[in-house]
Amino acid sequence: MNRITAAQECLARARGVREILTASYAAFDHLLLAIREHQERAGGLLAAFVLSAASAADGRDALTAAPSLPLPLPRADCATVAGAEVPDEPADIDDVADALAGLSVMLAVRLQRAADWAGNAGDRVACTDAARSAAAICSLLARPGP
Length: 146
Known about the structure:
Layout: H1 3-13, H2 16-38, H3 46-63, H4 78-81, H5 93-117, H6 121-141
Helix pairs in contact: 1-2, 1-5, 2-3, 2-5, 3-6, 5-6
């Protein structure tokens, strides 16, 4: 299981706004780590990787405004906490981009649902803003459809 798959599994297990906020914050960190790790070999995708890193940072930062995000802030170690092994990411840069886009889609969906469920206006705004950032990552990295 790689870092991105581990983040997806943490997001899938998250229940309720507080858990989704925590898993999403860590997932944005996972995205940043993976993007930075692979951007130097991104070739023609370099601009998309750099812009995606900015969106991942924006999404993570948006979540810090959520009153329900527990402190201390979560780190990108969900896989370690869960006891999962985290081998290297896929070797092919297109596969890396696909994995990052897949995680960003899941983030956007989970965060929008959390915004819909949130009883606190601050949580709703933070989730909506972070979901927008996740959607931006997907639009930058997803391969064009048929």
